[in-house]
């Protein structure tokens, strides 16, 4: 069976969040159009399930319910209330998903949202988030988080750190690695020499040093070196003019300097449909661009749009 024919592996994420609900809703809307299987406790899914013993059974099982490669997570799920006893199993589901993809049993990995504090409190999870843990499991040093929707792709050069720490973290070496990984990933998806727009860190991209010198001392030298290698780079650009419809037509992906500079525009443009993609891994990984939403867990109100988009993007990328 070719990779394009394999099902997508989906780790269940935090059972107390909206993951079990949006998984069931995604199955209801997708049916057999896009076979996937869940790694988690079948008792936690909010809908019909079909337990399977191997990923290859997902294509048959998906016609009757959510295919679940089931694990015993222990205590029953309590929506909105994370339990310490579940934490190690949530982590193991992610680890098993990575193993199945790398072993060629699944086409790609999609991950439902986790709650990092719950994992730290319950199982000593020491990673800042999914992205860093996946890099550890894959044995790679550098990965990049890309958020994508049909109208925009953005990459934050720094992610889950305080804003005050961004200038020090934004070294020439780090920014170079981020741009190189992004460039290579888009090339692998058929973009040829992708057009990359790079934001400045400061208002007005520093205004020639009048509002900060990071552009002059870090960003401009990096872009100059990479342009000399043939990369199609624009910038550093003022972030406040990069994301309107006309500007977006001029590039394939935008590199932003910090978390909110990247996530505010994409969540404004397509709040429900954004997808988190990890670039630089030796396999395809996507996830919905939202959290566990404990406040609405169990109420039947969760929107599966982002999860469906993440599964579809995983399928498109896993060719």
From TrEMBL:
It catalyses: 4-(phosphooxy)-L-threonine + NAD(+) = 3-amino-2-oxopropyl phosphate + CO2 + NADH. Pathway: Cofactor biosynthesis; pyridoxine 5'-phosphate biosynthesis; pyridoxine 5'-phosphate from D-erythrose 4-phosphate: step 4/5. Keywords: Cobalt, Cytoplasm, Magnesium, Metal-binding, NAD, NADP, Oxidoreductase, Pyridoxine biosynthesis, Zinc. A divalent metal cation binds at residues 160, 204, 259. One of its GO terms (cellular component) is cytoplasm. It is an enzyme of class 1 (oxidoreductase). It is found in: Cytoplasm. Its EC number is 1.1.1.262. Its cofactor is Zn(2+); Mg(2+); Co(2+). Binds 1 divalent metal cation per subunit. Can use ions such as Zn(2+), Mg(2+) or Co(2+). Pfam families: PdxA. One of its GO terms (biological process) is pyridoxine biosynthetic process. InterPro entries: PdxA (IPR037510), PdxA_fam (IPR005255). Substrate binds at residues 130-131, 267, 276, 285. GO terms for molecular function: 4-hydroxythreonine-4-phosphate dehydrogenase activity; cobalt ion binding; magnesium ion binding; NAD binding; zinc ion binding. Homodimer. Belongs to the PdxA family. PANTHER family: 4-HYDROXYTHREONINE-4-PHOSPHATE DEHYDROGENASE, D-THREONATE 4-PHOSPHATE DEHYDROGENASE. The active site is located at the dimer interface. Catalyzes the NAD(P)-dependent oxidation of 4-(phosphooxy)-L-threonine (HTP) into 2-amino-3-oxo-4-(phosphooxy)butyric acid which spontaneously decarboxylates to form 3-amino-2-oxopropyl phosphate (AHAP). This is 4-hydroxythreonine-4-phosphate dehydrogenase. It comes from Maritimibacter alkaliphilus HTCC2654. The gene is pdxA.
